[in-house]
Sequence to fold (1206 residues):
Amino acid sequence: MSKGENRTDHLPRSPGVGDDPREHKDTNTPPGKIRFRDLDEAVIEADRCIQCGSCAAACPSDSIGIDEIDGKPTLVKMCTGCSRCWDFCPRSGLRYERVIEETEANREGSTSAYAVRADDDSAREAGQDGGAVTALLAGLLEAGEIDGAVVAREREDEPLRGEAMLATSREELLESGGSIFNQTMQLGEIDRVVGESDLDDPDLALVGTPCVIQGAKALESFGRPGEGSEIALTVALFCTRSFEYDRLTSLLVEHGVEPEAVDHLDVADGKLFAYGESETLLETDVEAFDAAGLPGCEECADFTGRAADIAAGNVASPDDATTFVVRGERGADALDAAASELEIEDLGDDTALRKLAGWNRRKAEETLPREFDPEGDLSIGYEQHRERYDDTDRAPQSHNPARAYQYERWC
Amino acid sequence: MSDVSVVGPAWLDDHRDEVAVVDVRDENSYESVGHVPGAVNVPYEAIRDPTSGTAGHLPTPAEFAGLCAEAGIDEETPIVAYDDGPGVYAARLLLTAAALGHEGELYLLDGGYDDWSDSYETETGPVEGDEAASYDADEPGSPVVGRERVETAVDEDETVLVDTRSAAEYDSAHIPGAVQLGWEDLVADGSLKDREEIRRMLADRGLDADREIVLYCNTARRLSHTYAVLSELGYESVYAYEGSLTDWIREESDDWSPEGLEQQVREYADEGFEALVDAHGDGVLDRLKLIGLYHQKQRGYFMLRTKVPGGNLTAEQARVIGEVADEFATAPEEYGGAEQNAEFGDAYLDITDRQDIQMHWIELEDVPEIWDRYDEVGLTTMQACGNSVRNVVACPVSGLDPEEELDAQSVADRVTERFLGDEHYANLPRKFKVSVTGCHENCARAEINDLGLLPARKDGRVGFNAKIGGGLSDGPRIARDLDLFVEPDQVVDLVEAAADFFIDHGSYLDTAVNRLRFLVAEMGVETVREEIEARASFEFESAGEGLTERYRGDHVGVHEQADGNRYVGLNVPVGRMGGAEFARLADLAEQYGNGEVRVTLNQNAVLPGVAPDEVEQLREDPVVKRYSPDPGPFTRGVLACTGKEYCTYGIINTKNRAVRWARELDEWYEQEYDGPADPDAIRMHLSGCSASCAQPQIADIGLRGEDRRTIEGSEPAVDVGLGGDLGRERFIDWIVGSHPTADLPDAVRRVLDAYAADTEDEPFSVWVEQTPRERLFDLVTDRAESTATPTEADD
Ligand SMILES: Cc1cc2nc3c(=O)[nH]c(=O)nc-3n(C[C@H](O)[C@H](O)[C@H](O)COP(=O)(O)OP(=O)(O)OC[C@H]3O[C@@H](n4cnc5c(N)ncnc54)[C@H](O)[C@@H]3O)c2cc1C
Ligand code: SF4
Ligand code: SF4
Ligand code: SF4
Fold:
């Protein structure tokens, strides 16, 4: 950072939007100090959180956990105000487009697109599209390239609700095949799932929506020395939006579909499908579910997960295949190492992919209250955020004491 | 009391025009997913306010009235409330209305929005501009009850306590005598089960309609649903306990009593750490703080905190502490053993700025042995941590100082004795810090304690003036004058009354903002005074004439005592010294001094009662040489908390860094600094994070650990503040945020050179106050081009 770049720092920092008792104090706030409650107001209370879990992963004191009710980040321990959660949140302090830009600039090797199918029937069965992601991970596990993959599965107690899991065997991968259309705080869950396993210092593959991978990349590139080094491969799932769990199930019910009856959902060609064990329960324009989309997703311009080593989706390839975009040496090596598990063809015409990505990006640029600037500063300060977001419908909302931090752990 | 009825979508469809329909889901769901036509939106979250002064989670009557009025509801309007599903959240609104005196009918929509939208029309979009109404809410009352009601229920037979959580939760802990009735067992597929089936379940548990029932859960949310169901079934005496179960348990159970915890430690000492955690869960690690054991970052090892009221130790006690540190505070080989810390090795202890002594790497296996040795010499670790009356700090030279008005030590001892082991006060809403000063020099920092006592005179009597509500960390405040004079004999009463007030009004629910200072800020110091007086056993009188003349930073150096002897203030940089060295101090105290070792609020040690002609000889001892009473100004003024080395919150390492800086800066000071202003000490306080354990706010140069993330990566950093001065009741001004630690000694030099150039004899804090912020900012940040390597190793 060049000298003097923080020059506005000596100005008094504006207080958060809520009337917090801690603001009635006898000294000023250190310039640039950002606490969890600022993130909370600007992102979570403002209903912009995409539940990527970057904040939880970045917090040095593990102060951020997952709220039992809404699945969003919440404080579970004292917050020291180190600003890291803000600095790594792609909806506030982290200019995610710059992360993508840096990642691409530093990547060695080329990018190719393929149509990929799992070689094995069970993986194809278990998978959402071609089962290619499942097969890729199984291949890497068996080749000893990774010790585990952080994926997602449906929770046992709530239909369609996802949770992060660590798969360390083919069986577990088959179990977790298919797409989960709500967010799991994936990045913040890595420590937990690894901690609960018997792996020690493992090499991992991380699967997640593009925002999750942005966070992972940011920690690896701009974090503390060694941070993020356990992730040997990142796999992004193409994504235009994810859904808020309660709203999603409410809308399903409204469309006459009981969430319990749904085996899996799919979003493809502008339609949303709900499938039962054997029949199609619902096929409707995905717009009918707009209200359940995470509002924070509208600010996302990263359909193809450009920070990831491999990105996977359904668009542009045949129905029974997965589109793979394989980037750089890490991506290519992974594909090689798992080749025996996969049927790989060149993608051929990628117009549909490029169109959708372009549309997604234009939409995001329209929605973002701030400028979309891949060359811009990596960091977006609290004041800068407020300048752009205040007085928009994405403005910070005062922190709600009811969501307050009922933690018992202090220094 | 107001009844709640449970109605279905068909009923609502018929009666929609006669009632106010309230949607308690969040605004986004209400607007975008849809709502019952004509429904108003009062988001559930808006009606829960654990930070308000009102009982439990209830909003204040004014807040609730405002929400209702805005939604066009007056106190007689019938209300139908719904949420996404079976109605836990909606029931919460109804219970809130009932408690705040709503007079109209209350209905819960069974199955919520999901069932409604299955069969009936919905609408989307924002709230229609309903006519605002006026609403008159009462102070909270029945059906919401407090802890006393539960206490009676536990003791008598007429009332049944009902635990509305799951059977598993009930099994892990419940209030004695409570019957389990999980709210979820009453619903199936998102709506209420068949009424007859529910009646059978109730009958199975002996819950007849004519019994008095008190419901509880964890956060007063789930019980609301059960309340509605019982009310629907014609139960007339149903009450809700707003306090959380955690709150109850902490108050009542062995798990939270110091004796119970001590027992657990002794029981598992042989089997070890993991066995204890297996048996009592990870939560036991939080509870152990209550008896002085802080679990370190390194699994299986503890920091042990010994409290030293007023900082006063006998030589015998000091020797035991030193020996224990030497023997047990040793790092295991896997963490580097004796080399684990480049600066200090291991087997050391830390004197803290609250006159406690901490040691690290303590293993569970050794704790009983340590306690036994402690018992023999009258030391304790009980209530050294946790939400209790913390170590009472006092003037470390009380009884010695020639200018003393009162013996602060004896007052500190009496307060300590009163609260030690008292279970009632072992679980305050948060920690409670008391400071007692007896001299004219305010060396015990009354301003930053919850309750601070400074000497005063009134009508010829000598006693204390009280200050209340000071503290650092998040939202720092200087204590306010309570306008109260107390005699030394009344102090214990006062502390008790203040603690009682804290228990009654401090929120157990929102732990983030419940230090006493927030109550003082919220209620105003006059109200707080009245509240405390109401709980005290003596009549309050207004403040006397304060006797404080100045503020004293430390006790380093050789000073004359009232009796003509000397006390020798040793300088222990950042408070850390070897256990063996500390034991040596005990020898010296016996050999040269009066048999006491005192520890100060500056992380230093004092040897009192040295005969004037023996001082020189004492100075020759290697330990006295090492912790010299004549240090350089930086080494003398440096203070640091535990930091990242052991503390889970610490963002950067502190102790090693701070001593290194102090050494480097002292050299510079001696050789190059050329200022007319030549202070004895330059107080540089380095705290690992904003919890501010090293009290950066009162330093000349206050530093607080941060992390600085740039495109080049993350590096350790500090917030830099300047010009704190308790003598002038001034906290520092924070000048720069997240400045790289790599540039730190240089930044201090730049600031001090500018100070020296600007002024002849002004105190540093005055200079800071008069210098424009921008200039200070430039002085701190102006990095000489490449002193800073991008990432300083964070050792
Ligand atoms: C929210 C969301 C939106 C999507 N939108 C589109 C779209 O608009 N267009 C498009 O072409 N493709 C989209 N996809 C990607 C698509 O649904 C498939 O995931 C992709 O084609 C890979 O298919 P597969 O059969 O190879 O994967 P599979 O073999 O099914 O393997 C997928 C792996 O990803 C993991 N996983 C699934 N969901 C998540 C999640 N939410 N977080 C973390 N890990 C997860 C699974 O556990 C599994 O290990 C979306 C995916 C998601 C999760
Ligand atoms: S301590 Fe954790 S929650 Fe608080 S600011 Fe830092 S990263 Fe955020
Ligand atoms: S968007 Fe991601 S990083 Fe930001 S608050 Fe939500 S979970 Fe945390
Ligand atoms: S659209 Fe973007 S922000 Fe939303 S889940 Fe997908 S990747 Fe994340």
